[in-house]
Each structure stands twice: as C-alpha cells, then as structure tokens.
Amino acid sequence: MSTTRVTSVAIIGVGLIGGSAAATWRRAGCVDRLIGAGRGRANLERALELGLIDEIAESPADAAARSDLVLLAVPVGATAAVLADIAPALGNRTIVTDAGSTKTGVVADARRILGRAAARFVPGHPVAGTEYSGADAAFAALFENRRVILTPDTETDPAAVSTVRGLWEAAGAQVCEMTPEHHDAVLAATSHLPHVLAYQLVDTLAGLDEQQEIFDYAAGGFADFTRIASSSPAMWSDIVQANRDCLLPVIDRYLAELNTLRQALADNDRDAVNRRFERAKAVRDRFVDNRTGRT
Amino acid sequence: MSTTRVTSVAIIGVGLIGGSAAATWRRAGCVDRLIGAGRGRANLERALELGLIDEIAESPADAAARSDLVLLAVPVGATAAVLADIAPALGNRTIVTDAGSTKTGVVADARRILGRAAARFVPGHPVAGTEYSGADAAFAALFENRRVILTPDTETDPAAVSTVRGLWEAAGAQVCEMTPEHHDAVLAATSHLPHVLAYQLVDTLAGLDEQQEIFDYAAGGFADFTRIASSSPAMWSDIVQANRDCLLPVIDRYLAELNTLRQALADNDRDAVNRRFERAKAVRDRFVDNRTGRT
C-alpha cells in the first residue's frame, strides 16, 4: 500500500481534531510541513510548542496560500466564514477538506463560496473525539479504528477524494462515503441526540436542591454517562443548530418514547418496562460492545 | 484503626455486588468463613470455583442460620421474599444488611417481616457497580473510594450499624448515613434517571431504520454514554419500580426541560441552547471530574 503524501498542509483550528490530525499525519510520514492557523493565539503557540505544527501562519488565508491541502477543523458554525477567508488564496490545485460534524450545510456553503474550486472541496467527518478541547487534548491515536465519513458528490474531483481518503487511512481510520443528507440523519441519532440528552441531564440535576449532594452520590456509571456533557459547549451549540432539521425529529421521537416508558412506570406495568430494558441491553450488547471488542 | 471481624458471613446472591463484597472482605481479613446462597446454582458454583465463597448453602435460610451476618445482594424486588425465607433461621444476635439500590421499601419490608429482629437490620446501599453481572463480574476493588449509604433509624442497634460500617470501610468505601426517603430521592436523580435515559436512548435508536448502520457510526462517546444500558434489565426494572414515587417526578422534570431545550432549538434561539450547554459543562467539570480526579 502506497502512503499518501502531501508536501504542505494547512490546519485551520489546531484543537483536539486538527491537532490530532497533524500529529497522526506527521507520525505516518504523510506530510512534510504543517502550517497552523486559527483564532486563539495562545492555543497556536501551544500547538507549536507541542510540535503539532511547524509554524503559525498570519491568517487562515496565508496558511491556505502556501499549502497543497487545507483541513478546516473549526466549529461548523465558523466554516462559512473561514471558507470565505481562504477562497481568494487557494491555488489551482489546492484541496480543501473539513472535519465538521454536520455536512449538508457545509456542502452548501462550499458550493456557494468556493465556486469552481468547490470541486476540490472534500467534505469529511472523522467520527472521533473526547470531551477535551484545544491543542493540549490532541493525540495521534485519536482516529485509530474510528470511522471517517466523506460526503463528496458527482462534481467532486476523484483525485481530491482519493488524497483525503489516503490521509485518513494513514491515520488508522476506516473511511466510507455517503450523501451529506444521510450523514446528517445518522449522526443526529447516534451523536447529536446523546449530547443533547447528556447536557440536559446535568443541567436538570444542577437545578435540583442540594446540588452538591446530588453529585456527591452519583454512582459509578454517572461519570461515563455524562462525560460528553463536558464537551465544548460552543462547538456543540453549533452542531445542534446546524443539524436541527435532522435532530428535532429524533428528539421528538425520544421525548414521545420516554413519555411512554414513564407512563408504563406510572401504571405499574412492570412487563412493559422490563421488555424495553431487555431490548435495549440486547441491542447494545450486540452492536456496541461487539464493535468495540469489549468482553 | 481496628479491623471489623465477623466469623461467618452469609452472602445471599453472589453476583457483582455480593461477590465483590465477599472478595474484598476476605482480602481485608474481616471474615473467616463466607457462605453463599441464591437462586442460580451455576453462578454459585462459579463463585465457589473463583474462591469468592467457601461453601454453597442449601438455601438462604440455611446460610443465615450458620452466620453472624447476612448480606442480601439480590434484586430489590426479591428482598421481601428472601427476608421471609431467612427470618425464622436468624439467631438472636445475627446482623442482617442489604445492598439494594432503593431503601424506603426495603426498610418497610424488614420492619414488617423481621419483627423484633428488624433492630439488627442495617439497610445499606453501596453506590458502586459496572454494567456486568454475576460472580464472574465480581472484583475486590469495586467499592474503593465509593460511597456506601446506610439508612438506619432510631430503633436500629448501634452495634449492628457499627459492624456494617466497619465492613464497608474495610472495603475502602466512604460510609455515610441518611434517611431512606432522602436516599431514594437523591438516587432517583443521580442513578435511576440516567439508567432510564440510557435504556430509552438505545431502544429509540434500535427502532430507527437501518439499525445496524446507526450503531456502526456511533461516535466515540456513545459506548460510554450507553454503557449503563447494558446493566441487568431484571435488576433495573426492579429498582425503577421500587422507587417510582421518587423517580416519576424527576423524569417529568427532565421531560419538561428537554422539551424547553427542544423548543429553543426549534426557535433558533442559539443563546438559550448555548447557555444550557455551558451551564451543564461547568457543573459537570466542577462536581464530577473533580471528584473522580480526572484531569
């Protein structure tokens, strides 16, 4: 298997995702030079100190002008503005890709803002993360055995798709392709809904009397269950807003079904409650534990 | 600090909790002889094979008759039946304690069934667990740095409370006391509600089209978030049923607040969504991560 190589890569947003991509591509020998850009100067300096990037560019446009490939690893809500910044600076062969958690809006933005250069925009989503943020949270193994979903269309340059695919495969990820619409529907259910539920749980508990005590007696599973509620609020406000057309229907479905479960409990319908718990455990054990290799 | 010592302990239900208690008390040198009893013969034989117990009793009553202390580690719904089984066999000084996740109902059962012996019943709840069940899941470190909540009342023999406290402290736990009612209200929020939400999430996703694919693209946090939905359905049906008077109001509150969040999202009220996420993260980082020592 030949390794994908790109001489110079611009990372716009050197946080958990951008920094980890930089680290893994450097380790895999895919990239000669990594140029970082973004809003937080202190974070960029930290990324330089950690050796994630080789230099800090003056601006996203400056980084893009000197790169063969640009990775946008910014909150999805900032994608359009960054695309507008870098558009005039892109070379004729520069590939642009992103790491946003929603795809339909990003694809529309790219088409609108990049014009003909949109053919070399490869929409992507590495389905990986932790609850931590910033360059300090980055690590090269983040994408190993994780999925990366690309959502190119018939107008996307196949060579650009191939390069982006090669980079993520070099990071140890399993790369697949689907439409942006399908991506957004699937992720609304598996990622965006759980984040909403976890944030809301912590917020509800925080509103109860004796807040401190409530958390003192949280059981072993509580830290795991609420871990995603420590994810970046700015990033997640962006994501749920960007994907609300897909997210609202699954929230509604969840609300309706939770209400049904609540009613079964109120009615003392032990069988209905137990059946639901049994079904959930069977599905989770089959799909989730199998996949992650837990025993 | 002197170590609490009990010559012979009966463990009724040698699963995750009962088996782990047996393992930790043996390791700490608190107990000379551990007698197991329960419904699943194969599980008891496995517990014997693993060295968690020294022998298998014919019945819970047989185990109780030959012990100085009895730990009930059965689903809360089975507690009354087991108390009725062992009541005639209890010696004049035998201490009985339990590990049930709800306390008000257990306390009422003990008072009704044990009569005068109820004074030596010390209601307890080790707030610890994993999503696994059975003797194979047991391990001696399960209770280290975990809370154990005891809910004795003014009629409970102080010496019995002291012995039970000593055993849990020897297991590495932090022991505290509160009323059964307060226990049930706190645990409804921090433990029972999260389990309901996690079971319901997996069940909702399982009901969507393309079930397999949905779980294929589950993100990194999903396995953590849904881990508690792999807990024993029988045990958890019991718990939510036993504590439904406390649980229903917090489910209702959660439903109402999730609905408000949903509405903010539908109304494009980005600030309201972000404020809620920010508040949740701040609370979780402060109370949960601090407590578990994560960085």
UniProtKB/TrEMBL annotation, chains A, B:
Show the Pfam families listed in the entry: PDH_C (PF20463), PDH_N (PF02153)
Keyword Cytoplasm carried by entry:
no
- InterPro entries in the record, alphabetically? 6-PGluconate_DH-like_C_sf (IPR008927), NAD(P)-bd_dom_sf (IPR036291), PDH_C (IPR046825), PDH_N (IPR046826), Preph/Arog_dehydrog (IPR050812), Prephen_DH (IPR003099)
Which key words tag this protein in UniProt?
Answer: Oxidoreductase
Q: Which Gene3D superfamilies match?
A: 6-phosphogluconate dehydrogenase C-terminal like domain, NAD(P)-binding Rossmann-like Domain
The signal peptide, as residue positions, is none
**Domain annotation Prephenate/arogenate dehydrogenase: ranges:** 7-295
Q: Which PROSITE patterns match?
A: PDH_ADH (PS51176)
What is the official name of this protein in its record? Prephenate dehydrogenase/arogenate dehydrogenase family protein
Species in which this protein is naturally found: Spectribacter acetivorans
